[in-house]
Amino acid sequence: MASETLPLILVADDDVRTARRLALLLREDGYAVEVVGDGAAAIARLSQPPPPDVLITDMQLPHVDGRAVAGYARKGKSDVFVIFVTGYPELVGTRPDEPVEGWAVFTKPLDYDALRRELAGRCPVKS
Amino acid sequence: MPREVLSEDRFEEMKRYVRFGDDDARLVAAFGKVAAPSFPRIIEEFYARVREHEEAHAVLTGEEQIQRLHRSMHRWLERLCGGRYDAAYFAEASEIGRAHVRVGLPQRYMFTAMGLIRTSLDEIVDREMGAEAARVRSALARLLDLELAIMLESYRESFVARIQHVERLEREELGRSLARAEHRYKSAVELARVLIIGLDASGRIRLFNAEAERVTGFGRDEALGATLVELLIPEESREVDGALVERALSSRSPEGKAFDGTVRTRAGHVRSVRWQLAFAPSDTTDEIVLFAIGQDTTEAVALTERTRQHEKLAAIGTLAAGLAHEIRNPLNGAQLHVAYLERALKRKDVSPDLMEAVSVVGDEIKRLATLVTEFLDFARPKPLMKRELSAQALCERSIQLVAAEAAAGRVELHQDVPAADVTLQGDPDKLEQVLLNLLHNALEAVTDGGGGSVTVRTRRHPRHVIFEVEDDGPGLSRPDAPIFDAFYSTKPAGTGLGLAITHRIVSDHGGTIDVESRPGRTVFRIAIPSQGTHTPEPRARVERSTS
Q: To 10 degrees, what angle do helices B133-191 and B107-128 make?
C-alpha cells in the first residue's frame, strides 16, 4: 500500500516525547503521522504539500498558538479535521470567529481509545 | 405697683431730724397766704427758664402739657405752703417724685429747679415777712429739703427696681443658656453613636451614655461607681488595655491616644471597640478627668476579616485552578505512555500481575484527571445557562443514565413523579449533574449492602420544585459529618467533591439541599425556586436532620 493513501495526521505538541508516543500508537493504527514541536514549525510544515487530513494540536504552543495553527491549516485544506488536546477545554470555542464546525476538543489527559473512535468516525483507515 | 417710697414713719423721723415742727408748719402756712398771689408769676418764670434749656425742655411734649404742668405746679406750691405735712402730703410728694422718674427728668434738674423755686420764694419772704423772714426762710429751706429727699427716694427706688430687673433678666438669660448648654451637651452625649464613658481620678465610672449601655448591656445604675477596667475590660486584655487606661489616668496628659481594644458585655460576649482616651483636667477629685470615647467596631472587624478571608480563598482558588490545569499536562504524557505500555504488554502476553500493575497506574491517572475536572468545576463553575425545563424529563433522563449501573448492582430504580407537568427555571446540564451525583451515591450505598432500591421523586410546592433521591441503604455513618464540604469523603475512591459541587449548583440556583438519614432510609432533598431568581440569592443553607 502506497503511503499517500494513508490518512495523514500532523501532531503539534511541545511535549515531544509524548507527541512521539502518540504518533507511534496512531501509526500502529494505520495512520501516517508527522510530529512538530512548536507552532512555528507547524506553520512551516503546513506551508508545504501535502496538507494533512487531520491536525492534532495543543492549544498552548511556543511561538504560534494552536488556534492560529488550526486557522492556517484550514486555509491550506478547508476540510481539515482539527482536534484540540488541551488542559483548558473551556477556552476553546469561546471566540465568536472560531469555526467550531470541524473541530473536536479533548481534555488532557488524552483518552487514546476515545481519540481513536473519533478518528475512525471522521477519517477511517482504508484497509 | 408703686410701693411707698418712704414710709410715713420715716417721714416723721426726717421731720424731727431737720426739726420741722408745728411752729414751722404754721409759719409756712402764714407765708403761703401772703405768697399765693405770686404763684402764677413764679410758675411762669420757672417754665420760661425750663424752655430756655434744651435737655430740660426735651421732657416736655407740648403746650397742652405745659398748661397741665402749670396747674400741677400751682397745686404743688399750694400744698407746699398749705401747713399740713402729714401722710397725704407725703403721698403726693412721692407721686410727684415718681412722675419725674417716669418722664425721665434728670435729678440735677430737679435740684436746680428746686433752687429756682427757693430763690423765688425767698424773694417774697424777704419782701413780705418782715421780722419773721429769717424763721420763715429757715422753715421753707428745711421743707424744700424734705421735699427733695422724698423725691430722691423715688429715684433711688426706681434705680433699684431697674437694677433688679436687669439682674433678673440676666439671671434668666444665664439660666436659659445654662439649660440650653446642658440640653445640647446631654443630647450630644446621649444621641452619639459612640460609647462615652467618663472616669474620675480613681478610674471609677461617672458618666455612661446610652450607646455604652446598648453596646455593653450594662445599665447606667450598674456601671456608675464601678471601675472601667474591672467592669468592661476582659481579663485577658487587662494587661494591655487596662494599663493604657491607668496610664492615661496617671499621666494626666491631655493627649488623646486611640487604640483598638475589647469590652466584655453583660452577657459575657467580647466586642471590638476602638477607644480614644481624652484627658479633661479638673481640680475637684470626684469630677470626670478622663473620657473614654469608643466606637463599636465588632461588625466592621468581622467584615474586614470575612473580606480578607474571602480574598484569600479567591486567591488560593485562582492559584489552585491554575495548578489543576497545569497538572493535566504531565497527566497527558503519563496516560499516553501507559496506553502504549498496555498495548505493548498485551502483545507480549505477560503475567497478569504485570498487566494489573499497568492498568492500576492507568486507573490512578484517570482518577487524578477526574479530580482535576471536578475541582475545576467546583472552584471555577461555569455560569448557569438557565431555561424553562421539565422536572419529570430531568428525572427520567437521569434514571436512564444510571440504569445500567443499577442493574449491575441489583438495584431497583423507581421514579415517583406527579402526572401534571412540573416546570422550573434552571440549567438542565447542571441539574442533571446534581441528580446523577446523588443517584451515584445512592446506588453505591445500596450496592455495597447487596442491592435494594433507589427512588427519584419530584414534587411541586407553592414556590419551589422539590427533588428527592431516596435509598434504603445503611444511611450516613455519621449524621453530623460535613458531607457537603469539599474533600470530605468516606469512599476509598471518592474525590470528596461530588456533594460539594452538588451543593454549589443548588446554591447557584438559589435553592437549598438537605439530608435526612437513618439506617434503611436516606433522603437527599433539593428545593429549587420554580420562578428562578433574577438577583443572586444567598448561598444555600445546609440543613440536616436525623430520625
A: 170
Sign, CA dihedral A64-A66-A68-A74, equals: positive
pLDDT tens readout for residues A57-93: 998 888 888 888 998 998 888 888 999 999 888 777 6
3-state DSSP helix/strand/coil % of chain B, to nearest 5:
60, 15, 25
User: Among candidates A11, A76, A17, A19, which has minimal Cα distance to A39?
Assistant: A11
Cell of B285: 477629685
Tell me which amino acid residue B268 is.
Answer: G
pLDDT at B534 over 70: no
Confidence of residue B342 (pLDDT cuts 50, 70, 90): very high
CA distance A119 to A22: 13
**CB-closest option in B326, B331, B382 to A109:** B331
User: Going by CATH, does the domain composed of A3-122 fall within 3.40.50.2300?
Assistant: yes
**If pLDDT is split at 50, 70 and 90, which confidence band does B256 have?**
low
Between B22-35 and B133-191, two packed helices, what is the crossing angle to 10 degrees? 100
Q: Is B192 exposed, middle or buried (0-12, 13-18, 19+ CB in 10 A)?
A: middle
B86 close to B79: Cβ distance less than 8 angstroms: no
Cell numbers for B200, please give them.
Answer: 474620675
B519 vs B542: CA distance, rounded Å:
21
Q: How far apart are CA B449 and CA A125, in angstroms?
A: 47
Closest CA to B119 of B40, B25, B46, B31: B46
Average pLDDT of chain A to the nearest whole number: 86
Asked if A21 and B343 come within 8 Å (Cβ–Cβ), the reply is: no
Tell me which chain B residue has its CA closest to the CA of residue A88.
Answer: B325
In this complex, how many residue pairs, one in chain A and one in chain B, have their CB atoms less than 8 Å apart?
Answer: 54
If residue B264 lies in a helix (H) or strand (E), which one and from where to where? strand B257-264
Name the pTM for this structure. 0.48
pLDDT interval class at B541 (50, 70, 90): very low
Q: What are phi and psi of B277, to 5 degrees?
A: -100, 130
Measure CB to CB from residue A112 to each of B325, B329, B339 and give the nearest one.
B339
Residue B336 burial (C-beta neighbours within 10 Å; 0-12, 13-18, 19+)? buried
ipTM: 0.86
A51: closest CA of chain B, how far (Å): 26
Angle between helices B391-408 and B428-448 (to 10 degrees): 30
Confidence of residue B547 (pLDDT cuts 50, 70, 90): very low
* Residue that is written with C-alpha cell 469561546 in the block: A94
The C-alpha atoms of residue B212 and residue B263 are separated, in whole angstroms, by 10
Write out the three cell numbers for B471. Answer: 435509598
pLDDT above 70 for A2: no
Grid coordinates given for B416: 415517583
Give me the residue from B327, B333, B365 closest to A17, CB to CB.
B333
- Can you say whether residue B104 is alpha, beta or left, with left for phi > 0 and alpha for psi between -120 and 50 degrees? left
- Nine-digit cell string for B252: 494626666
The domain locations on chain A are 3-122
* H helix or E strand, kind and range, residue B272: strand B270-279
State which amino acid sits at residue B135: R
Q: What DSSP element (H or E) covers B379? A: helix B352-379
CA-nearest residue to B326 within chain A is: A87
